Amino acid sequence: MPNDWQPVCSIEILRLRAQVFDDIRRFFSARGVLEVETPLLGHGSGTDPQLDFFTTDYCSPPLQHTMFLQTSPEFAMKRLLAAGSGSIYQLCKAFRNGESGRFHNPEFTLLEWYRVGFTLPQLMDEIAELMAVLFNGHRVLNPVQRFSYQDIFQRLTGLYPLEFSYQDYCAYARGNQMPEAASICGYDHGLWLDFIFSHNVQPQLGENAVCMVYGYPACQSSLAALNEYNSQITDRVEVFVNGIELGNGYYELTDAIEQDRRFDEEMSIRQQKKRTFPVKDKRLIAAMEAGLPECSGMAIGLDRLLMLLTNSASIDDVLNFPINRA
Amino acid sequence: MASYSTNEFKAGLKVMLDNDPCAIIENEFVKPGKGQAFNRVKIRNLKTGRVIERTFKSGDSLEGADVVDVEMQYLYNDGEFRHFMVPDTYEQYQCDEKAVGEASKWLKDQDSCTVTLWNDAPLSVSPANFVELAIVETDPGVRGDTSGGGGKPATLETGAVVRVPLFVQQGEVIKVDTRTGEYISRVKE
Hints:
The structure holds 2 protein chains of 2 kinds. By secondary structure, chain A is α+β, with helices and mostly antiparallel strands. In chain A, 36% of the residues lie in helices and 21% in strands.
């Protein structure tokens, strides 16, 4: 008899997940942040050139529409913000097609929250406070670390990340047993940064500590605002613990025209890469035209958080039915 | 040969890389939330045995390699080549010392072993995990000493040298784990 009807994770981990949800709800409720729920299924999709979405058909005879499972609840939550919801959070599923591995399951759980009036540093303070609550009792962490992308990249690789030097990057790759980097990345600055960061920077971040990296190069973020003082970087933050990426946050872009321009740019990149052509979320643009309040937002992958709380080697270990058993 | 995309890279899959046949050992999907997806692959070159790490852009593919493991019987050494036979078909293969490599020190006539063929030519030879071989030379031990401590070197009929307990004598047949080169036990005749 096949026994793949059974959950992969233990009942204890089901309890821990419930506990984490509980802690999160308590944390935000105490701060007056409203829990919301938005559709998983939408008429528009993200345009991120690096994400593939699940599509499905909505049948309402005689009409048939293609709809998309969200890759994150960002757009719908921003529409609520534009409608005057105030600060909000959500615990929900997100879907990313084709992403499967030790740290990825195509269907996963996100905590996403938006703080009206928060700057990026204020958001980072709140992230640190939330992490302290969630790790409490499971793991004693070293003090929170904060680095600018430029500082940590330079410190760990000796390379300057904000300006592209093909020679320097190639020499670095050759010297670090990654000769294939040059043929993979070519003259694509953003791709080089992804390559070097994920191979040689990220694994060293946050040794038993919450590590926040902020100020990502502008070529690396589509929904973050450009930094007020330095247009080479964006107000984006990433959170790492033990080299594992836990989440991403922005001081959000509120300019509808700029957002529309970035969407178009990304859609043409997708077309070049021959990836599924997205349907631009016009309702988000309309909401931003009506006025998205100044805010900062953050998304945390809760399955990976559970991996860290339980010292699990694979995301499957904290899921009841990972994709192969779903 | 079919080609395989990064998401089909499973442990054991044989592929061609830099014109050499290789076996995938480990495949890790690396994807920043907002960035390019990569696959970091640990791969063994089947010709040299060397293990390297190589990164691919997710979705890239490699040509499959026609590599198969075949159970064969070791026949004899003609001085230049070692000869093997597939018991079912009587088909014979000859391997040079390079292909036989480390396995040579465990190969006894008639023993079965695994020969890895690439495009039907021998690439490497793996001995059985456990072999039974006679000791041709070892210092006389102290009778009655059954403690495991210390031990002494013993030369086996194939030329391999393994450490055996002091009580094991010349002429005796012993069982050895070829993966570690360690003595397991005496074999009662």
